[in-house]
Amino acid sequence: MEEAVKMNVKNSVTDMVNSLALAFVGDAVMDLFVRRRLIENGAVKPHALHRQATRYVSAKAQAASLFYLMEQNELTEKEVSVVRRGRNAKSPTVPKNTDVQTYRYSTALEALIGYLYLGKEYDRLNQLLEKICMFTESADHRSGERMTTMTSRWKEDDADE
């Protein structure tokens, strides 16, 4: 991320931050990253920017992106731990345009992004955000098949713990 958005937060602090707070930060970081990417790629009309950004930052897109990263074994053990923490966080809000399960996976991805950002792991953050954007641009992330497969796999993993 650019110098203008870097913060002075100690790495150990990120382990103590509430998952929903990590997701709060991660949502903003991802939104800024996507907006910058769209503008750099020539999108300038406000309505078009909003419509295009939704492809990346909707709950369904974020959940699908998380599943893609998991399928590709892109995440470290620590990152998977943060994802699990984020997924299991109980949000006081109820999603309007998606089901609770998809919303939780979306929150998990946002928590990971917030964790990396607050932990000053900017290179890793940019690497994952680039992969997410490339996946979103090249795939039909709205496919329910990936969601069903990965949800089943997560339930099996949780049962093994």
Biggest sheet details: none
Quaternary state reads single chain
Rg to the nearest angstrom? 15 Å
Name the helicity range.
Answer: over 70%
Structural class: mainly alpha
Number of helices: 8
Query: Hey, roughly how much beta strand do the residues contain?
Result: under 5%
For the residues shown, what is the average pLDDT? 83
Order of helices and strands: HHHHHHHH
Ends distance = 35 Å
Task: Explain what the structure shows.
The chain is mainly alpha-helical and 161 residues long. Helix content is 72%, strand content 0%. It has helices at 11-14, 19-40, 46-57, 59-71, 77-88, 100-118, 122-138, 144-160. The termini are far apart. The mean pLDDT is 83.
